[in-house]
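DATA SHEET
Item: assembly model
Revision: 1
Owner: S.N.
Input lines:
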Amino acid sequence: MMSRTSNAHPLWSSRFAFILAATGSAVGLGNIWKFPYITGENGGGAFVLVYLACILLIGIPVLIAETLLGRRGRQSPVGSMQLLTEQEGTSSWWRLIGWNGVLASFLVLSFYAVIGGWSLVYVGHAATGEFTGADTDAIGALFGGLLSSPWTLLLWHSLFMLLVVFIVARGVRQGLEKAITWLMPLLFVLLLVLVGYAMTTGEFGRGFAFLFFPDFSSLTAEGVLVALGHAAFTLSIGIGVMMAYGSYLPEGVNIPKTALTIALLDVAVALLAGLAIFPVVFAEGLQAGEGPGLIFQTLPLAFGQMPGGGFFGTLFFILLAMAAVTSAISMLEPVVEWLEERKGISRLKGALLGGITIWFVGIGTVLSFNHWAEVYPLAFLPGFDERNLFGIFDFMVSNLMMPLGGLAIALFAGWALRRETLNQELGLEGISHSLFLFVLRFVTPVGVAWVFLYNLFG
Ligand code: PHE
């Protein structure tokens, strides 16, 4: 799938291969686990609307810009940004984009791998028929039991990390293409099956309305920030992942068209997940604002009641775990690419070194669901009084580092890059070119800045 160029930097074999890898990165726990639970916590429709607006006006332009910078730089995010600032004669401060990327992808993987572990645990639960006929209490107890046992969490977290390191060490490209070609369609089909089940619960209309009818009175300033952060999280932008993947992209591939395809697929998966989950939430009298456990408490109920639920449930959690793995490997990629390039160490060593350190930091997240659930290390800072370690990592990465990284990327590509460079890489013409430039230079930065100011003073 990859070939080497004369400067020894490998390339994706085609546009399609890149779409697969980038979609594999974008579609993951963010769509199926996080989107429904934060939508529930933030009151539904109005939040979804802001999230969609953020995808369109901020997410897609940044995705295009980030991929383009990666392709132009052809190195790790740190290396690419250094090269570009030199080539384009801009301030070297822009290199912070690269450092922010490597640091944030490191942090995000530390907690992502823990949740990835949960989906592995649930493969086992589904396969052994534990959902069959279980009621809300039993399903709640199953989840509660998992969270309260740090050793079990650690075991599955470690296995998940091992899988990720193994794949990255072998080279992300091998095998990934094949896996994703069947993984994505299957995931879609299974989500449709679940939506089909949701239609039989009698509360489909209410679930639908919750997702799509905006009630602005339930949206807070922080909700708007979470929606922005999630638009970045779900598209894997602002933290160098798409820059790293873009660095393997052949010349001549139309980046805007590609980015649009990826974003469409990504949003479709999230909305389907929402449609599958909220009707069950209402039918079972559960809380929409339940928090990170939402899908683990609703979907097992659905699987427990539908015909063939054992089979569908097992398959679903396998697919969820695999979708998480294809995202997780993309988070390790900037770190490993950087270690390879700067420290001159092999891919295997880079993956091991990065993986073990990230795994170690992840123990903080494991403990955030039990022993340290109510330990708030940064409580002295405003807005951090109820954030445990997991809460802090998630907030810092998703709500600060990713959107601010995205803002910097839009500013750099829109204003600092020479016009010819941008035009060459974009390959857009006429009105779509002007429109894109306008959005990238004005709408995207103003949008991100507005959300931040609104949060500070709103
Ligand atoms: N986009 C992934 C998801 O939605 C998460 C991710 C974030 C992947 C950042 C890479 C980088 O699950």
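QC remark: The pocket of phenylalanine is lined by residues 25-26, 28-31, 108, 233-234, 236, 239, 241, 327, 330-331 (CB under 6 Å).
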